[in-house]
Amino acid sequence: MALTLTAFATQGLLNSDTVTSITLNSTGAAAIAAASTTGYPITASNAAGTGLTNYSITYATTGTVTVNAAALTVTANAQTKQYGASDPALTYAITPGALVGTDKLTGALMRVVGESVRSYAIQQGTLAASTNYTLSYNGANLTITAAPLTVTASNATRAYGTANPSLSGSITGAVNSDSFTAIYTTSATALSDVSSYAIVSSVVGSNLSDYNVSLHNGTLSVTQAGSTTTLTTKAGTISSDGENMTLTADVVSTSSGTPTGTVSFYGGLTLLGKSALSGGTAIYTATLAAGLTYDLTAVYNGDNNFTTSTSSDIPITTTALDFTLAPPSTTVQTVIPGNAVSCGFSITPSYGNYAGTVTFSVSGLPAGATATFSPATIAANGGAQTVTMTIQTATATTQNAKPTLPHRVASLVLALLLLPLLGTKKMRRQGRRINRWLCLLFLLCGLAASAALSGCGGSYFSQAPKDYTITVTATAGSLQHNFNVTLNVQ
After folding, report:
1. Radius of gyration of the chain from Cα atoms?
2. Model pLDDT for residues 271-297, shown as the tens digit of each residue
3. Could you give the CA distance from residue 222 to residue 105 in angstroms, rounded to a whole number?
C-alpha cells in the first residue's frame, strides 16, 4: 500500500526548492491494519515538490511503519427495573462510534448481584476488545424501583345493634414469593349509629420496603335495625265516662339497643295522640267516647337506628260508668223503739270509677226515725266500699187501746169505794167491827185500781209490733241503684 508523508526530512535542497510529498510503499499492505510494535517495512519513492528537476533524488534505505492500538472507550448505559421484574439487557456505547473492519467487542457487562430496592453497579464484566484497541470503561448503575402493592378493603353491611362482620379485602402485586397479611379495622361498634364508617386497611409482611404500598379503605354501612311494638291496655268492655284509659307501648329492638322517638296511638284509623319513648316505653292516657268499638294499635314511628313497627290490635268496647249495690246479708232488721240498729252493704264500681261522687238516701222510715251512713259519701275514684247504715228509732207514745180485763177490775174497785157513801147510816148501826174489815178491803182494791190506771203490769199505753219497708238509694251522677230492707219495730 502507498503512504503519503506530509512531513519528512530532506537533504541538499537549494534555492527554496521543496519536497511536498514522498510515496511510501509498504510491503505489508494486508497486515498494516493491525497494530504492531515491530513495524511494517516501507520504501520511499515518487517525491514531489518544486524545483526537484534540478536534483538527483536518492531514496534512503527502507524503514518501518509502527501501528499503535487505537483508543476505545466503552460507556455502560444506566438501567432501571421494577422490583421483582427480570433484569433488562445491559447495553453500552463506544467511542469512537464504530470498530475498524471486522473488529468486535466480546463478552458482556455484568451488575452487582442483589434484588432489593436500590442501585447496583454495572461492571465491565467479561466485555473485551482485540489488541488493536486500548479499552477504557465507564460504569453505570442498574436501579431497582419499588413494586406496587395494593391492599383493598371490601365493603360490608350490617344492621344497627349487631356485631361487625368479618372484614376482608384483597392484596395484589406481591412478587418473588413475598408473603403479606392485610389488617382491616373500623371504628364502628355494635351500637354505633346508622351511618357509613371507614374500613381502614393496613399490611405487614416480609420485604415490605421493596413495595410502594397503596391502601384503599372500604365502607361499613350500618343500616336500621328492626323493631317490635307491643301494646298493653285493658281489653274487652270498659267505661269511658270519667275513666282515663292508659295505653302502654313497649318497643324493643330485634338486635340490641333501645329505640327512641315517638309512638302514635290509634283507635282504628283515628289518631288518639302521641307519646315519647323513655327506656323503650311510651305511655298515653286516652279518653274514649262511650258506646263505640275501637281497634287500638300503637305505631312506633322509628328513629335514626330503628325501623317503624306496629302492634297487634286490641279491640275495646266502651260503655257508660255503672256500679252495683249488694244489700245486707240479713234483709230483716229488728229494733225496740228508742234504740238503733246498724247493717252493712257493699257498693262496687263496674269499671274502676263512679260517674261522680256517690251519695246515699233512705225512704220509708218510721215516724221520728233517722238514718245515717258511714262513709256519708264516696269519691268518684273511691273504688269498692262497705257502707254501714244506722237507723235510730224514736221512743214509744201513748195510744188509745180497747179496755182490757185489768181495766174492768179497776172500775169494779172504784164502785166498791163509793158503796159506803150510799149506806152510811146503816153501816153505823152495824158496829165498828164491820167498818174495820171494810176499810182494809177498800185499801187493797184502791191499790189495784191505781196500778191499773197507771199502766204498770198492763198494756193500756203499749205499742203493737210493726214492719216497715226501708228503701236505700245510692246516687252517682245520673245513675241510681237501690235495695230494700225490712225494719221490724217491736
Report:
1. 73
2. 999 999 999 999 999 988 777 888 999
3. 70
Instruction: Provide CATH code, domain 227-319.
Output: 2.60.40.10
pLDDT of residue 230: 98
DSSP notation for 410-451: HHHHHHHHHHHHHTHHHHHHH-HHHHHHHHHHHHHHHHHHHH
pTM of the model: 0.57
Q: Which amino acid is at 258?
A: T
Query: Is residue 319 within 8 Å of 240, Cβ to Cβ?
Result: yes
* DSSP summary character for residue 453: H
CATH for the stretch 71-145: 2.60.40.10
CATH number for region 323-397+466-489: 2.60.40.2310
Show the cell assigned to 230.
307491643
CATH architecture for the domain at 147-223: Sandwich (2.60)
By the 8 A CB rule, do 294 and 313 touch?
A: no
pLDDT at 106: 95
C-alpha span between 21 and 486 (Å, rounded): 180
User: Where are the domains positioned within the chain?
Assistant: 2-68, 71-145, 147-223, 227-319, 323-397+466-489, 407-454
Residue 481: what are its φ and ψ, rounded to 5°? -140, 150
- Could you tell me if 486 and 332 are in contact, meaning their C-beta atoms sit under 8 angstroms apart? yes
pLDDT per residue over 331-365, tens digit each?
999 999 999 999 999 999 987 788 899 999 999 99
Strand ranges of the sheet holding 79-82, from the earlier edge strand across to the other edge: 79-82, 140-145, 119-123, 110-111
Average pLDDT, the chain: 84
3-state secondary structure of 368: coil
Regarding beta strands 227-232 and 262-267, do their DSSP bridges make them parallel or antiparallel, or are they unpaired?
Answer: unpaired
- Would you say 358 and 382 are in contact if contact means Cβ atoms under 8 Å apart? yes
> What is the C-alpha to C-alpha distance for residues 74 and 385, in angstroms, rounded to an integer?
124
Say if residue 109's pLDDT is above 60: yes
Contacts of 390 (CB under 8 A, 6+ apart): 340, 341, 342, 371, 372, 373, 374
Q: What does the block give as the cell for 463?
A: 205499742
